[in-house]
Amino acid sequence: MWKLAILLYPATALAVAINLFLAGLVLHGLGFSVISPITALWWCLPLGAPASWLAGRWVRGLMDEADR
């Protein structure tokens, strides 16, 4: 599963960055400060690892289900 998570890391890290940036835009409407795209990219580096692991588990479960 870790090999699969490593392969999925670039896609999941970028998805995390996009979601962080958009969440920052939503929170800006509630009075918080805006999260810049660069800040979202920096935060996606550590937060992309758990997201990759979860995506790897999900895909592995789909693969196991397809094998049955």
Keywords:
0% strand, 68 residues
Characterization of the model:
This protein has 68 residues and is mainly α. It is built from two helices and no strands. Helix 1 crosses helix 2. The protein starts with a helix and ends with a helix. The mean pLDDT is 92.
Determine the mean pLDDT: 92
> How many beta-strand elements?
0
Separation, N- and C-terminal Cα atoms = 18 Å
Major sheet details: none
The radius of gyration over CA amounts to 15 Å
The class by helix and strand makeup works out as mainly alpha
Proportion of beta-strand residues: under 5%
Helix-strand topology string: HH
Quick description:
This protein is mostly helical.
What is the secondary structure topology, with strand pairs?
Blueprint: H1 2-29, H2 37-67
